[in-house]
């Protein structure tokens, strides 16, 4: 087979692979509580960020929790891992493809609770705690590591197999717990309610209690089990939660159901890692990766407060009232109170208050899984066939995401490569290679900032040591069906307005841009007071009414990513139908006035001076800022006698006095002209005769 023929076969095969069901290489944070510094994601590149609801956990990421913090991560197949306070957990392996999930979680400090979906076929769900590993198959319980680095596992249901570095192996069934003995091997105990965090706390303490025999440890665990029994018995008969209308078979990778809790309302109800506070009913949506076919079971976990000391003391009081006292019961109750750990006396207890179970099957997804596996087998067979001096084989995975996505690229190359470049729409990235390399991997982020969401082709170009190049073009289909968050800062403008220019009919608008596939809240402030809020999606504009007069308008916009921007303008609103007028010397219409003046003394000029009083009346709210300008002219004088502009000099009153020069023995007409910002012109005049 020639090189060119082989290249065409590989390219065609990979084009098919890209169009098939994509792999999932991340979990999703369903719940996170605690101060920001006490719930942190540590990325393998050294960067870190706050663990927030909706955030993604990728392979090699670590999650660190501090005091009074908790992070619940949902894996692609619907399994959940609850990272409790003061813990450090690494997601060493996390991948789900073709219906097969591979997960290895390393508990480096503290404890976790887990609720694993049933693992089918080649799927694996494992934990590592210090020197021990455990294989999980459809199990609910807890895992942790003691301060002395001893592994601890406890189960509520299912079965796990635990191995240590010495080759020691043991199985753990429901209602059992194992503690690594610090060297090689395990100690096994009976223990109920392993999923409760307080039980795990006690188990981790007892795991390092070298002064206690196995019998003494078991005795304390029995007290803990009895305490949980009493607490749960007290609550479970009053709190039963059921899901409505769950079918036997679900054909899509999500289920929305109403859950109702009878009688008492629990403090919290957790479903598939999502926690709700104090509710007796509500609508809940459960999700998992589309190719994780098979039986699904999701327990409903309730938390509620129980006063165990109060319950036991009430029992002792009842025992005291009995005519024929049972001394054994009294001694047992007192013994129980004396050994009961403080953190169990009055505390919030967890218990399973219901469950949701169904079969997930989608024929189309089943066919895609099989087709993709067949293609991978064909590619593997091809790679084992005839070899050539210069070959390029590239496999691409488009990761489905509702946040920033990524395209993961894996390639095989022969021919002494020096560099490989990747072009995805406007994005170009380069990777330097050692000429002895035969494989490469790379990941290209897909997001709004890079503007490569709409790319339909990935071009991979390898430059060889001899200067020649190998090029492979692969069609790409990026999933944009789910909601994404635009992380760009939005732009805000007040549209078609200029400071100080009047608006008719007293309306304006603001426009939000750079907000594609995003939404947020626009807040309207007038003179610093919040007036109204608008919900804006994508790039859109909103009209708003102007208040009467001149005011400062400010628009502040906050988007989903936490970006804020604003625009501000001084706008004027005038009533176009106002009845404003000018009154000169108290008269609103043109008038005349004869002034009797004596003849002037010799050598005195021929003018006399008259104070003219004029007022601007009926301006709405006496708002002088509605006046644009005032002009006074008089006969016999070129140009304006007086001019006042709001823009230049400022007009801050409505009553004026103007000194007018009148020539003796002549008639002088004085005109007052007022221009309003709404375009209306007010005029009045007076004619003086000085004789």
Walk me through this protein's architecture.
With 691 residues, the chain is mostly beta strands. The protein folds into 4 domains: 35-386, Sandwich (Jelly Rolls), CATH 2.60.120; 390-475, Immunoglobulins (Immunoglobulin-like), CATH 2.60.40; 491-573, Immunoglobulin-like; 581-690, Sandwich (Immunoglobulin-like). Helix content is 15%, strand content 48%. The protein has a 17-stranded mixed beta sheet that branches. Strands 19-25-24-21-22 form a 5-stranded mixed beta sheet.
Topology of helices and strands:
Layout lengths: L2 H17 L6 E8 L5 E4 L5 E3 L5 E3 L3 E4 L4 E5 L5 E4 L3 E11 L2 E16 L8 E6 L2 E5 L3 E6 L5 E7 L1 E6 L4 E5 L2 E5 L5 E5 L6 H11 L6 H23 L4 E3 L5 E2 L3 E8 L6 E4 L2 E4 L3 E7 L6 E14 H14 L5 H13 L2 H4 E15 L2 H21 L7 E8 L6 E10 L2 E8 L2 E6 L6 E8 L10 E8 L4 E7 L15 E5 L6 E2 L3 E7 L5 E8 L2 E9 L2 E6 L3 E11 L4 E10 L7 E4 L6 E5 L11 E11 L9 E8 L7 E4 L9 E9 L2 E11 L4 E10 L1
Parallel strand pairs: 9-10, 19-25, 34-40, 42-48
Antiparallel strand pairs: 1-4, 1-6, 2-3, 2-5, 5-8, 6-7, 7-9, 8-9, 9-12, 10-11, 11-14, 12-13, 13-16, 14-15, 16-17, 18-20, 20-23, 21-22, 21-24, 24-25, 26-27, 27-30, 28-29, 28-31, 31-32, 33-35, 35-38, 36-37, 36-39, 39-40, 41-43, 43-46, 44-45, 44-47, 47-48
Helix pairs in contact: 1-7, 2-3, 4-5
Report the biggest beta sheet as strand number plus sense, adding barrel if it closes.
Answer: 17 strands, mixed
- CATH class of the largest domain, named Mainly Beta
Helix count from the secondary structure assignment = 7
Radius of gyration over C-alpha positions, nearest whole angstrom: 40 Å
The percentage helix is: 10-25%
CATH architecture of the largest domain: Sandwich
In what range is the share of β-strand residues? over 45%
- What is the number of domains? 4
How many β-strands, per DSSP?
A: 48
CATH third-tier fold name of the largest domain: Jelly Rolls
Indicate the overall shape. Answer: elongated
What integer is the average pLDDT? 78
Runs in which pLDDT lies below 50 for 5 or more consecutive residues are: 1-22, 497-504
Class inferred from helices and paired strands: mainly beta
Through-space gap between termini: 122 Å
